[in-house]
Amino acid sequence: MLGNQSGGILGNMPTVVKNLLIINGLFFLGTVAYEPLTKLFGAYYYDSPYFHPWQIVTHMFMHGGFMHILFNMFALWMFGTAIERVWGPKKFLIYYLITGFGAFVLHYAVIAWQVNGLVEQLGPQAIETIKTQGIQLWAEGKNYTDPLMAQLNAFYNIPVVGASGAVFGILLAFGMMFPDVRLMLLFFPVPIKAKYFVIGYGAIELFSGIANRPGDNTAHFAHLGGMLFGFILIKLWGKNDNSYRQN
Description:
mainly alpha
């Protein structure tokens, strides 16, 4: 692990939270300095030429911009600190990685369902054209005029990045462990109990994912995947451990 327990800005943070903040920051600086790293570490659809197995892990340390990483790291620090202090570093890290993996699984399960629908409507020739020529077209900032071909090409060439899936898993854990803690949000300056905030946020993500509005580039089902896998994991642990019931 990076860092130590000495003083300073990160000195009082739990070990895993502190190191996750550092690692995410290093990945972000790396992509700022060399943008093609996104193609190497962002998670692509399994049938994309850009897909590599390690992306299942590395994508959760990548971010699409300063505000993206700022909000994710703020939430990781705000909610993750309390959770790691209850669970300890090993359990917290396992939870973080599994919920990040769950985000990947649910996001691309939904994408696979959408891709299968497009494949059924497009002929074999169109699909082969997309797989052989679509990458270059996308690299030039262009896409197909046929909406079905354009959508399939986008699925192959747009990666999912960010710690949001794991962060939503942490948010769920906080709501279950500290359900009656009152949160004061910047965009909703009225105190709200953590359990209601989590339920409300989850409902918004589900609605947004189903609505699938044009131009919405947020991976809502990845967020839900982090919450779903987190809930399952907490319930499995809860059979032998009552720590998640603390408030």
